[in-house]
Amino acid sequence: MSMKTISVAIAFILAHVTLVAPFVPAANILPAGLGALSMSSMALTLILAARWRIVDRLMGGPDKSYVAHRWLGFFAICGALGHWALASSVGAGILPVLAESGEGVGTVAAFGLVLMTAAALVRAIPYHLWKASHMLMGPVFLLAAYHTFFVASPLAVGAAPWTLMAVVSVIGLLAWIRTLLRKRTPTRLVTVERAEPFEGGVDVTLRADAALPSFRPGQFATLAHNQARAEAHPFTIAGGDESSRRFVIRAAGDWTGDFVRNISAGDELRLSAGVGRFLPQIGAKRTEQLWVAGGVGITPFLASLEQMEPDSAARVTLIYCIRSRESAGAIDDVERHAARLPQVDLVVLHDRSGDRLTEGRLADIVRTMAANTQVYVCGPEGLKTLVKNIWLAAGMNGRIHTERFDFRGAYGITDLIYIGQPVLNVAQQWIASRKGLQHAVAGS
What angle is formed at CA 256 by the lines to CA 46 and CA 237, rounded to 5 degrees? Predict the structure, then answer.
């Protein structure tokens, strides 16, 4: 986690405390600030979930929105619990007759957030149950808004924090309505034209009776069975033309496992339009690029190779890390495209044969590249970390583009470590500095 991320998170929290400080008694600053933090965080999660195009564009793509959504979820639950534990009734509220109900509703909202967080923490909970629980964020937000405006509060009506919370509540409500309406967004009916299994996955081509919305290499689309209320899952588009789409899918859970085992030619699915901002440069005006793929992470690059034309412009180095040829879907097509494109240097590494991407090997490749080379990485988190560490160690200044395809957004131990580790590091540094100071004083 970068210092920039930590700084933004701290600033976001302190901004809420600073906002309410001039308008409430000193004893109420912290609980009021935590309440404001929870409310604005819930509203922002709803805004991100609404998937307005301008928001996705500002965030850098839907995957970045989901990462921010996860952080905001932590802020919402921590703010709500802190507010619930510290707040006390002060003043009469807008309508004194509703003050008591406002307090009770706030407790219900806090417990609702706790239950939703608990559901997110346990990945063993089936996807459809998690999704159903997550849809309760809208009602929980409405309960929190009721609590904010009708509980006995030290905030005066019309004060800056009160006005801001009112605006936030309205926007959050509109975002929730947008999310509900988006569930009705039409998808296209497609038929499985080809389903070619490989070790642990399936290479599937879908075809529609009419032209499909265009897509850009690197974007993803959702697939669902042609059934009422069927679950839709995101997959990167591996290629296609005006009326077809190709996906290379690995079994990685209940839904994908069932899909890989049972999909066959003639099956009907529902396909969404392509979205996303992970867009490798394929035109002749591109800068030098390094593409690194792990397993089915080859899909955005496969679509890019398919649309590239031979040229003599900046080179593209593609490192494809696989367990074996049998487990690598579409490897023959990757090699075929690389052979017809003189601008592409392909490096295929077979894990089972001991031919792996090591720090030294990657460093040797990086040293041959221009400092402003653009990097695109799609694969496991460990692969992304390896590329990032070597890239920074080499002093390169080109941007590293990645996506995090964990669209369930469940919290696991790695997420808790990811968010909690910086806090632990700061605490350890502070303790170490205190010990150093004490030793210095004792020595003097």
Answer: 70
For the record, the structure tokens of 198 come out as 């490989």
Give the amino acid at 144: A
What's the domain count of the chain?
3
How many residues does this entry show for the chain?
Answer: 444
| pLDDT tens per residue across span 257-286 | 999 999 999 999 999 998 888 999 999 999
Burial (CB < 10 A; 0-12, 13-18, 19+), residue 214, is exposed
Domain that holds residue 249: 188-271
Is 442 domain-assigned? Answer: no
In the numeric block, the tokens 């392509």 are attached to 274
Residue in the structure block whose two tokens are 């970390």: 385
Q: Are 127 and 253 in contact (CB under 8 A)?
A: yes
Whether residue 372 contacts residue 287, with contact meaning beta carbons closer than 8 Å, is answered with yes
User: Shortest CA distance to 247 belongs to which of 230, 222, 284?
Assistant: 222
CA dihedral 165, 170, 171, 175 (to 10 degrees): 130
Strand partners, 222: 234
In a domain, 92, yes or no: yes
Q: From 154, 182, 210, give the residue that closes a domain.
A: 182
Give the Cβ contact number of residue 228 at 10 Å: 5
Domain match, 178 and 203 both: no
Q: pTM of the prediction?
A: 0.70
Helix (H, G, I), strand (E, B) or coil at 122: coil
Phi, psi of 196 (to 5 degrees): -110, 110
Using one digit for the tens of pLDDT, what is the confidence trace for 59-115? 777 767 777 887 888 888 888 888 888 877 666 666 666 767 777 888 888 888 888
Query: Does 267 share its domain with 322?
Result: no
Query: 95: which 2 tokens?
Result: 């309508």
Tell me how far apart the alpha carbons of residues 35 and 161 are, in angstroms, rounded to a whole number.
11
List the one residue out of 149, 193, 156 whose CA is nearest residue 170. 149
Per DSSP, the three-state class of 147 is helix
